[in-house]
Prior knowledge:
137 residues, single chain, globular
Amino acid sequence: xxxxxxxxxxxxxxxxxxxxxxxxxxxxxxxxxxxxxxxxxxxxxxxxxxxxxxxxxxxxxxxxxxxxxxxxxxxxxxxxxxxxxxxxxxxxxxxxxxxxxxxxxxxxxxxxxxxxxxxxxxxxxxxxxxxxxxxxx
Length: 137
């Protein structure tokens, strides 16, 4: 497990399925892209199957970021699961103004593969594109 922010953690699927771990860490929402997992109805859950090879599409990344943002704004403590969860958290942190390399370091921990740098690069390009788009009247 890696604590990212006061109410945001990244962890493994085994910890996300451990009721004691969830209770001890006061988890209220779980974000997970992948197969398997037995989650209690006590949590706000965002669980979607991952694409082949465990990669995220930009749409899935945006959906995951939206879930994080909404859950954190509602005051929930969120657990993002596995490498896809780490990628979504890193992308969220870059949207909040952190550099990509710093975000990757922050979410990397033992037992969880590093975030997918290729999807983070695509996300960074999209953020730059959005910042330069002008609305014409």
